[in-house]
């Protein structure tokens, strides 16, 4: 049965092979594009030579020098017998008063659910399928060869942690494929349980090295122990490189998510407790010309639940194989030695006074883990490849009424210069004219934009994916906007720091602004944006100084005697930056308004609501305001993700208070602080005078009264 | 006063000693049977001239290890040969050694760095003279000298740094005067005068320190007197009722054991340096002996000790096996490293000489199995007098030290053994590790011990591999001190360092420290592969002692010693991070001072300093070891608070 399905999918892949094949031979541009800058395409060889022998060839992969070969079942056996798990079982017996055998069985069940069963047979068939799929989906898969060489050099010497960025399911397929291609040991991958729903795929991935972790396991000590030991034994014995996502989950917005630290802590504990001499951490940035899940993401952001992963769903989605998803760029960053990174920052000898299987980390170590997590995300961003489409999206987001191809080319050229000044790596085919580059990208994204007969670029209206059942016209528009915003988001990290300065300057009403006041404003914005963008805690001043210097050097901002001359500083650059981030600030402002409208009830305290409710109701409010034309047509404000981030930021600023009731978190505004924030926020953007708006939620009418 | 390598290894020396004294012991036993022997006597122990003369340089190398007549050199055939006739390998060539040196550390016979021929008077600093002290001292009968070479000899121990200075450089600060008291009373006199005239006293025993404990503080402006205890070498009495003996501090290990052996007794304390190190030095550094499993370390052997301090003489009023009277004042003296006073007289436990002594060895498929076996042996408390586990690198090195064998049969047997282990048992010669064993006791006891240990070993895939391998293993530890000198001749710096560690971290520590050393060598652009090896050399209930050797070829590097020290301190940091200690038996001296605060904590260090302050307020014993000046100069910056946090992990 399973086999039949597999054969079916493979034959369907075969049929659509391969529209590029004929172009390869006679288009000098494409041929020469096999190698470009530091990148090399690893797909072309497969197109020319096929995959059968490729998947069966002998692989000579280097192994970690302290490694003792183990089978997946030996690894499981080790985990069950480990001091840590035995200790956790003992503790659990005491706590739950259950018999030991029962707790053992539970631990063993957890492990069975978790463990991978990586084996060469599965890997080879997996590779076979992957080549087929990749050849269908992508034009080229670029990898920076020197990065691979560095990894190759490390494999024998160190346990390795791979930390790729995470913006698509394709990420870990690509990672495994790259390692297969370069004869490197295949990573084992920490995957979310989602895939287990798909029987066949779950099985295939498990046998190719995926291990499954529950999304949240809070205070389940037994789970923690099994999970920690499972991860750590791989690291200590160096069985395989371990791959996990520091952002925790796929970014639905193409922006980096703020780092999560659980997995990172588990992975680094063996170094802090001196089980191993060192660990190498390798950041990997994966940039897509076009993201496979673009429309799924857009509707998920609007609150349409993502379809449950299932194998049949996957088969239904196979028509996607007929689409073109452009290029992928995979950049392996400089590996970081944890020993060197933590030199002088942690004192490992603090672990001398207790057995090492009892979990503990010092505050120095926790700080270090936070620092490293942020560093990883920033490194991802640094090595992201910016495509022309990203810059086009940035311009298009600001010109929703349409823009002529010529004008767009001009604007993109300008953005390119700015991005390049900010240190972004831009993938721009030098041998082609700007216009042809643009047209090629429009073609690639023809589901989002098109060129009409007047040579004007405009958004295409598209039918939403079937599962969304969306009929509301506004939702459809918003879906389109969010799809476009994904690609703009890809470069926002390049601009966000100078933009916070630009926004402060652009909205300044006096003639001059001192650096100190500017910095105060900057810090306020950073706090507000701290969940939507990634800032390293404690480095605001450094970031600020650097960004200000960049802005003055690119003549965006004019300084005299430590003061910004506002008149000369409001220009195209600062205006562009301001507009780029305006939707976020406007979104937060609406959120604040919504929260403020929750009047203290009879008990004298605003009504507490769950985060979900707050966010959902804010979205409703936004929808009304958009519909009635009260606010600018930034449809992306309808994104629940933006609202959630805003709410978290407000919580960290003390404007919102959390309260736990029956294990559920409720939130309510801290009116005084929230008013301050709202007032402050309104200084940075043009805000409308809000009419009283009624929104209908689950047939209850909520009236929002503007209070300015 | 200090002891190098408190473990042993003078198996050959022992061998000789035993041969010489067996007859004597037999006589003793006969005497005893005739009832002629008084229980407490000093009759049979006439004082004799010390083995080490006042002018040490006449017998010992001035710029290297051990006797002048004993050294490695490359003979005319291009093979490494050991000279002299003191040791069993003396006069033998080791055909495998040259190849090993070339292959493992990349030496080249063409590239030599001979030592400077001498440090002449012109390069030796002028003595600082405290005229009051000198004139009063002259009025006593205490032997003294301000001869350049006498002073230079007492300015150093045997760290890489110190020996390198002797070979290539000069000393900025050395003792200004050497005195040789011959009794406790003379020591009291010297210390009194020193206090009166504010003169620094640095006690000197065997001179085998490897912690820079003997180095004179460069900034010391007062006169420094080196108090050489070598002439205080009498055994004062032997008490066979209580099985104790009392001796003066300056007696060196081999003399003590030889003289006790004449009476059928021994202390059983055998640090590797026992040919040269002194009884007082053992106490002052908390020495450890190879056979501690049977006899105990120095703190277990010590029954009574007398120390002359600036405040007066510190001692207990009784010689009891144990007492409860507050903190044990002996523990201020043990390991005081000459910072509080001069140890003058010591009572140690003695034991009858064991009638049977047997070496043994076990081959393990890898180091990990070996460590697990050691742990099990310790758990069952059935460790023989000595049990040590060498890693593969050290095993190979031991192999290279094999002396030329003339017997076809033994070569043939070796071949068979190798065949058995590698082919039949499937051990990888590049992974296997070897434990060496020394059994002591009656024949029956030894047989029973052997049986038990080999049974445990079998559970960890260990195969008994004969007594020759065992004996060679023990030989290795003592020749390695001589080997360093020939290494120096060929651009190689080498040193050993040690630690103690709980069992659960033992393997990780060995692995991580070796790894760290390799890594640091790479990072410091040392172009030749370093030689890094370790052995688990003592077992305890709760942990083990681990001993590292580290050598590298410094051709192409301008500051080898500085680099060596830099790397060693990185290794020590790794040790501490791995749950190891600052030192198991070498002591702290000056070289490891920077980690003392971390080791004992602020309060601990303060306590040590308070004791020092009370006993020696004017810092007469100003060798700057341990806690002295530790607060201000090193590591004084307040570290940020760092605490363990509970974690879900």
UniProtKB/TrEMBL annotation, chain A:
Pfam families (alphabetical): Acyltransferase, GPAT_C
Limits of the Phospholipid/glycerol acyltransferase domain: 160-289
GO molecular function terms attached to this record: glycerol-3-phosphate O-acyltransferase activity; glycerone-phosphate O-acyltransferase activity
InterPro entries assigned to the protein according to its UniProt record, in alphabetical order: GPAT/DHAPAT (IPR022284), GPAT/DHAPAT_C (IPR045520), GPAT/DHAPAT_LPLAT (IPR041728), Plipid/glycerol_acylTrfase (IPR002123)
Key words of the record: Acyltransferase, Membrane, Transferase
Membrane topology: Peripheral membrane protein
Record bears the keyword Membrane: yes
Top-level taxon: Eukaryota
GO biological process: ether lipid biosynthetic process; fatty acid metabolic process; phospholipid biosynthetic process; triglyceride biosynthetic process
Location in the cell: Endomembrane system
Keyword Acyltransferase part of the UniProt annotation: yes
Gene Ontology CC: endomembrane system; mitochondrial membrane; peroxisomal membrane
Homology family: Belongs to the GPAT/DAPAT family.
Entry protein name: Dihydroxyacetone phosphate acyltransferase-like isoform X1
Species lineage: Eukaryota, Metazoa, Spiralia, Lophotrochozoa, Mollusca
UniProtKB/TrEMBL annotation, chain B:
Assembly and oligomerization: Homodimer.
Sorted UniProt keywords: FAD, Flavoprotein, Lipid biosynthesis, Lipid metabolism, Peroxisome, Transferase
Residues annotated as binding substrate: 484
Domain (FAD-binding PCMH-type) ranges: 171-353
GO biological process annotation, one example: lipid biosynthetic process
Pathway stated in the Swiss-Prot or TrEMBL entry: Lipid metabolism; Glycerolipid metabolism; ether lipid biosynthesis
InterPro entries: Alkyl-DHAP_Synthase (IPR025650), FAD-bd_oxidored_4_C (IPR004113), FAD-bd_PCMH (IPR016166), FAD-bd_PCMH-like_sf (IPR036318), FAD-bd_PCMH_sub1 (IPR016167), FAD-bd_PCMH_sub2 (IPR016169), FAD-linked_Oxase-like_C (IPR016164), Oxid_FAD_bind_N (IPR006094)
Protein task: Catalyzes the exchange of an acyl for a long-chain alkyl group and the formation of the ether bond in the biosynthesis of ether phospholipids.
EC number(s) recorded for this UniProt protein: 2.5.1.26
Stretch list, region Disordered: 630-649
GO molecular function: alkylglycerone-phosphate synthase activity; FAD binding
Pfam families per record: FAD-oxidase_C, FAD_binding_4
Gene it is expressed from: LOC106071255
PROSITE patterns linked: FAD_PCMH
Main location: other
Reaction(s) this enzyme catalyzes, per UniProt: a long chain fatty alcohol + a 1-acylglycerone 3-phosphate = a 1-O-alkylglycerone 3-phosphate + a long-chain fatty acid + H(+)
Co-factor requirement: FAD
Active site: 547
Family: Belongs to the FAD-binding oxidoreductase/transferase type 4 family.
Keyword Flavoprotein in annotation: yes
GO cellular component, one term: peroxisome
Site label Important for enzyme activity, positions: 388
UniProt-annotated location(s): Peroxisome
Protein name: Alkylglycerone-phosphate synthase
Record: residues binding FAD: 203-209, 285-288, 337-343
């Amino acid at each position: 049965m399973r086999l039949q399905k597999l054969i079916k999918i493979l034959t369907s892949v075969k049929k659509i092979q391969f529209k590029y094949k004929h172009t390869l031979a006679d288009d000098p541009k494409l041929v020469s594009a096999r190698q470009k800058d530091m990148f090399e395409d690893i797909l072309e060889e497969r197109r020319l030579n096929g995959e059968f022998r490729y998947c069966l060839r002998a692989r000579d992969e280097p192994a970690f020098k302290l490694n003792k070969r183990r089978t997946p079942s030996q690894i499981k056996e080790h985990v069950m017998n480990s001091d840590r798990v035995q200790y956790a079982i003992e503790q659990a017996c005491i706590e739950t008063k259950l018999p030991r055998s029962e707790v053992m069985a539970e631990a063993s069940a957890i492990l069975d659910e978790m463990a991978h069963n990586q084996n060469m047979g599965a890997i080879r068939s997996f590779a076979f399928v992957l080549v087929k799929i990749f050849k269908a989906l992508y034009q080229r898969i670029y990898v920076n060869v020197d990065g691979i060489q560095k990894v190759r050099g490390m494999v024998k010497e160190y346990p390795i942690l791979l930390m790729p960025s995470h913006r698509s399911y394709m990420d870990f397929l690509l990672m495994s494929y790259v390692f297969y291609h370069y004869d490197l040991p295949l990573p084992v991958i920490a995957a979310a349980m989602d895939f287990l729903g798909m029987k066949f795929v779950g099985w295939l991935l498990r046998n190719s090295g995926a291990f499954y972790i529950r999304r949240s396991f809070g205070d389940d000590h037994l789970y923690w122990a099994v999970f920690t030991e499972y991860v750590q034994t791989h690291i200590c014995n160096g069985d395989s490189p371990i791959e996990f996502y520091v952002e925790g989950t796929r970014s639905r917005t193409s922006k980096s998510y703020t780092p999560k630290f659980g997995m990172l802590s588990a992975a680094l504990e063996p170094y802090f407790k001196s089980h191993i001499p060192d660990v190498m951490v390798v950041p990997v940035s994966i940039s897509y010309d076009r993201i496979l899940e673009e429309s799924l993401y857009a509707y998920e952001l609007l609150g349409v639940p993502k379809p449950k992963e299932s194998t049949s769903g996957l088969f239904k989605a196979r028509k996607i194989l007929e689409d073109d998803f452009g290029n992928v760029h995979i950049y392996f960053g400089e590996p970081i030695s944890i020993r060197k990174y933590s030199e002088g920052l942690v004192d490992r000898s603090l672990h001398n006074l207790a057995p090492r299987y009892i979990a503990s980390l010092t505050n120095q170590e926790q700080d270090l883990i936070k620092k490293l997590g942020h560093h990883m995300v920033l490194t991802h961003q640094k090595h992201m490849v910016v495509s022309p489409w990203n810059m086009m999206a940035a311009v298009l987001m600001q010109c929703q009424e349409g823009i002529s191809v010529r004008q767009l080319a001009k604007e993109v050229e300008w953005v390119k210069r700015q991005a390049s000044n900010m240190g972004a790596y831009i993938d721009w085919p030098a041998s082609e004219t700007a216009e042809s580059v643009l047209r090629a990208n429009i073609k690639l994204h023809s589901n989002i934009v098109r060129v009409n007969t007047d040579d004007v670029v405009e958004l295409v209206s598209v039918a939403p994916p079937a599962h969304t059942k969306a009929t509301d016209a506004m939702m459809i528009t918003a879906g389109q906007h969010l799809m476009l915003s994904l690609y703009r988001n890809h470069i926002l990290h390049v601009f966000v720091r100078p933009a916070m300065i630009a926004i402060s300057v652009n909205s300044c009403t006096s003639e001059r602004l001192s650096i100190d006041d500017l910095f105060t404003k900057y810090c306020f914005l950073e706090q507000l944006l701290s969940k939507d963008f990634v800032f390293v805690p404690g480095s605001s001043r450094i970031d600020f100084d650097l960004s200000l210097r960049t802005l003055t050097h690119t003549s965006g901002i004019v300084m005299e005697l430590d003061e910004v001359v506002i008149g000369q500083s409001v220009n195209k650059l600062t205006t562009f930056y301001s507009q780029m981030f305006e939707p976020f600030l406007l979104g937060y402002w609406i959120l604040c308004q919504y929260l403020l409208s929750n009047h203290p009830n009879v008990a004298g305290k605003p009504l507490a609501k769950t985060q979900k409710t707050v966010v959902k109701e804010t979205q409703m409010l936004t929808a009304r305001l958009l519909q009635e034309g009260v606010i600018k047509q930034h449809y992306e404000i309808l994104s629940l993700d933006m609202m959630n981030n805003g709410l978290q930021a407000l919580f960290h600023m003390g404007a919102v208070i959390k309260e736990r009731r029956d294990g559920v978190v409720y939130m309510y505004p801290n009116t005084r602080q929230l008013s301050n924030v709202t007032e402050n926020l309104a200084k940075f953007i043009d805000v409308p005078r809000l009419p009283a708006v009624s929104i209908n939620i689950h047939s209850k009418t909520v009236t929002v009264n503007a209070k300015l | 006063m200090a002891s190098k390598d408190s473990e042993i290894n003078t198996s050959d020396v022992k061998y000789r000693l035993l041969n010489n004294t067996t007859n004597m012991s037999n006589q003793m036993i006969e005497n005893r049977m005739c009832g002629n022997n008084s229980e407490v006597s000093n009759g049979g122990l006439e004082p004799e001239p010390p083995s080490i003369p006042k002018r040490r340089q006449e017998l010992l190398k001035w710029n290297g290890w051990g006797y002048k007549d004993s050294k490695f050199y490359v003979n005319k055939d291009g093979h490494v040969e050991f000279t002299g006739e003191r040791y069993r390998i003396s006069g033998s060539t080791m055909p495998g050694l040259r190849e090993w040196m070339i292959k493992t550390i990349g030496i080249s016979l063409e590239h030599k760095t001979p030592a400077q021929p001498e440090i002449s008077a012109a390069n030796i600093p002028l003595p600082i003279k405290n005229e009051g002290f000198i004139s009063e001292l002259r009025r006593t009968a205490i032997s003294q000298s301000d001869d350049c070479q006498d002073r230079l000899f007492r300015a150093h121990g045997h760290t890489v740094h110190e020996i390198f200075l002797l070979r290539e450089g000069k000393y900025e600060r050395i003792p200004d005067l050497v005195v040789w008291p011959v009794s406790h009373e003379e020591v009291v006199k010297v210390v009194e005068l020193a206090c009166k005239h504010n003169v620094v006293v640095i006690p000197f025993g065997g001179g085998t320190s490897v912690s820079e404990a003997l180095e004179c503080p460069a900034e010391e402006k007062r006169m420094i007197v080196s108090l050489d205890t070598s002439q205080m070498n009498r055994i004062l009495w032997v008490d066979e009722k209580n099985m104790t003996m009392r001796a003066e501090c300056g007696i060196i290990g081999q003399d003590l054991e030889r003289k006790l052996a004449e009476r059928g007794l021994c202390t059983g304390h055998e640090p590797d340096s026992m040919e040269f190190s002194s009884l007082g030095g053992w106490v002052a550094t908390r020495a450890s002996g190879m056979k501690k499993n049977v006899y105990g370390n120095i703190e277990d052997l010590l029954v009574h000790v007398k120390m002359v301090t600036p405040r007066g003489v510190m001692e207990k009023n009784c010689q009891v096996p144990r007492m409860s009277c507050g903190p044990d004042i002996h523990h201020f003296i043990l390991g005081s490293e000459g910072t509080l006073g001069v140890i003058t007289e010591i009572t140690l436990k003695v034991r009858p000489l064991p009638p049977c002594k047997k070496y043994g060895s076990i081959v393990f498929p890898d180091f990990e199995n070996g460590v697990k076996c050691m742990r099990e042996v310790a758990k069952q408390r059935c460790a023989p007098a000595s049990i040590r586990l060498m890693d593969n690198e050290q095993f190979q090195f031991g192999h290279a030290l094999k002396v030329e064998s003339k017997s076809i049969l033994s070569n043939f047997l070796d071949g068979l053994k190798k065949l058995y282990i590698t082919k039949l048992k499937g051990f990888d010669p590049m992974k296997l590790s070897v434990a060496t064993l020394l059994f002591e006791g009656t024949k029956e006891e030894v047989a029973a011990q052997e049986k038990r240990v080999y049974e445990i070993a079998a559970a960890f895939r260990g195969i008994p591999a004969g007594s020759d391998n065992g004996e060679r293993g023990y030989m290795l530890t003592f020749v390695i001190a001589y080997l360093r000198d020939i290494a120096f001749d060929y651009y190689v710096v080498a040193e050993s360092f040690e630690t103690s560690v709980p069992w659960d971290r033992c393997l990780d520590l060995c692995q991580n420290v070796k790894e760290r050393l390799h890594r640091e060598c790479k990072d410091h652009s040392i172009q030749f592969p370093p030689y890094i090896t370790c052995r688990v050399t003592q077992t305890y209930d709760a942990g083990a002692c681990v001993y590292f050797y580290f050598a590298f070829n410094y051709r192409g590097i301008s500051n080898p010693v500085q680099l060596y020290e830099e790397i060693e301190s990185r290794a020590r940091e790794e040790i501490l991070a791995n749950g190891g200690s600052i030192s198991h038996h070498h002591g702290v001296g000056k070289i490891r001072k920077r980690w003392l605060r971390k080791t004992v904590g602020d309060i601990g260090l303060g306590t040590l300093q308070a004791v020092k302050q009370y006993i020696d307020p004017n810092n007469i014993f100003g060798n700057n070891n341990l806690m002295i000046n530790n607060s201000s100069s090193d590591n004084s910056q307040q570290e940020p608070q760092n605490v363990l946090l509970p974690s879900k992990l």
